[in-house]
Design goal:
The structure holds two protein chains of two kinds.
Chain A: E1 5-7, E2 10-13, H1 17-28, E3 33-37, H2 45-48, E4 54-55, E5 64-65, H3 66-77, E6 83-86, E7 90-95, E8 101-105, E9 110-113, E10 115-118, E11 124-127, H4 135-138, E12 143-144, E13 157-161, H5 165-174, E14 180-184, H6 194-205, E15 209-212, E16 216-222, E17 226-232, E18 238-242, E19 245-248, E20 252-255, E21 266-267, E22 270-272, E23 285-287, E24 292-293, H7 301-319, H8 330-333
Helix pairs in contact in A: 1-3, 1-7, 5-6
Chain B: E1 5-11, E2 17-23, H1 30-36, E3 55-60, H2 70-78, E4 86-88, E5 101-105
Parallel strand pairs in B: 1-5
Antiparallel strand pairs in B: 1-2, 3-4, 3-5
Classes of the chains: A alpha/beta, B alpha+beta.
């Protein structure tokens, strides 16, 4: 396990648009930020779910695509040198005697901070799991829900299951690396990118890929190690494929996850906050963006930006307990980079 | 479209059968209509047919529904589990055909 210790002023959980803007508002008050996000890139649902979609209600932009907005936001916060732990989900929060916090990530990263800001959107994106017998028995050594290191599969017999772009793209990528590769899809066509689909048919024609369409997953079988995947075909007849690894790629869906265990007041799946500064019931912990809830709450990016600004003004007292806060405009003072 | 109320039978995510008369006003699609009828709809993508939070199975009345959009097909294709009459409620536009139908809401996997 990688063990990395990071010291910062504010730890922001979630690197979506609101988490990113919190870096800017904190930066104006000379507070440093570290962001941690389960996804492997910044942007949250904007880059994960709808990167190409136009957004029409960002002030100052008649229209901007989701991915462009995130690109701009990263540029906007660059002067404040934020640091990131991407592809790592938060597991635990430890309160220190001094009142400060340690945020513990799933890869062992420890983030020491004065303030925790939860900007977790609708939760932590987690893989959708198929219904296959013995899945748990072979996870995580032989069953995978994302490809972290493609070279882990070098020379191995692998089966990929799924019919979306990510299943097709990884099949195309891993075809050169794996020893044997099979793609299993429930239906008889691919509806995703036509370009990726034609590459899949090409690989099958060349004999590199075994393509099983209209197959249903049934069970995994083996000893301590995974040995085969059992399925049924369109006639309901049993079919088996030998494999060392099974990779199920059925997209991601947000789950609240460990946040639910931190003693925060919750309503449904969101965190209740005080609208004077978007603080939670736990001192030094704030919640901004889609993850919070209050009377009149709207899940809009622009509301999250406002919440980030008020949060930063309030968090200042924990980072600089001996300093007086004075409110300043960027038009007067510009950006004083770190 | 000039109709006001939709009669719909819904098997909720906890398995209970509910009969709802939902007053429809500014709602554009079945996801929004169900939300107006107090069914839980997280709708991560807000109705773009991308997240499948509104995945449902149409149990009766499907024949009169408009066919799935390309986006709907594409998203359904990425899910680990679907049913014969799986649809994404957000991609089903408001229409008379919604009345007297029966649907089942699917828990996000």
């Amino acid at each position: 396990m990688i063990k990395m210790i990071i010291e910062t002023d504010i730890c922001i959980i979630g690197a979506g648009p609101v988490g990113l803007f919190a870096v800017f508002e904190a930066g104006l008050l000379k507070m440093r930020c570290h962001l941690i996000d389960a996804l492997s890139q910044a942007g949250g649902q904007l880059t994960e779910i709808y990167p190409k979609k136009p957004i029409y209600d960002i002030p100052g932009y008649p229209v901007i695509t989701a991915e462009q907005l995130i690109k701009n936001q990263l540029e906007q916060i660059a002067p404040f040198k934020p640091t990131f732990s991407l592809g790592e989900r938060v597991e635990e929060l430890r309160k220190q005697d001094s009142g400060s916090y340690e945020v513990i990530g799933s890869l062992g990263t420890v983030i020491k901070c004065q303030v925790v800001v939860i900007a977790g959107g609708l939760g932590c994106f987690e893989p959708r799991l198929p219904e296959v017998k013995n899945l748990d028995r072979y996870y995580p050594n032989y069953v995978h829900y994302m490809v972290k290191d493609p070279h882990h599969f070098r020379g191995k017999k692998i089966v990929i299951a799924g019919g979306g772009d990510s299943a097709m793209d990884w099949t195309n990528y891993l075809a050169d690396i794996a020893g044997e590769i099979t793609l299993v899809h429930r239906s008889n066509t691919f509806r995703g990118s036509p370009d990726s689909a034609s590459k899949i048919y090409d690989l099958e024609k060349k004999g590199i890929l075994k393509l099983l369409l209209s197959h249903r997953l049934d069970s995994l079988e083996g000893t301590d190690q995974l040995q085969r995947l059992n399925m049924t075909d369109h006639n309901n007849d049993p079919v088996s494929v030998d494999c060392d690894h099974f990779i199920a790629l059925y997209g991601l869906s947000p789950k609240l996850g460990p946040i639910a265990r931190w003693g925060l007041d919750l309503s449904m799946n969101s965190i209740l906050v005080d609208t004077k500064d978007y603080s939670t019931n736990v001192e030094r912990i704030y919640a901004i963006g889609d993850i919070n809830s209050y009377q009149g709450k709207l899940n809009l990016i622009l509301c999250g930006y406002h919440e980030a600004a008020l949060m930063a003004q309030s968090a200042f007292k924990y980072v600089y307990p001996d300093k007086r806060l004075s409110f300043k405009y960027t038009t007067v003072n510009g950006i004083n980079e770190f | 479209m000039n109709f006001k109320n939709i009669n719909i039978e819904v098997i909720d995510r906890d398995g209970s059968l509910k009969k709802s008369l939902i007053e429809v006003d500014i709602e554009d699609n079945l996801m929004e209509i169900l939300k107006a009828g107090n069914y839980e709809m997280r709708a991560t993508c807000g109705g773009m047919g991308l997240c499948a939070d509104c995945h449902c199975e149409i149990l009766s009345g499907m024949d009169h529904f408009p066919p799935p959009t390309d986006q709907e097909y594409e998203t359904l294709d990425t899910l680990p589990i679907i049913f014969n009459n799986s649809r994404l409620a957000c991609q089903i536009k408001k229409g008379d055909y919604l009345s007297n139908t029966k649907i089942r809401l699917i828990n996000p996997s």
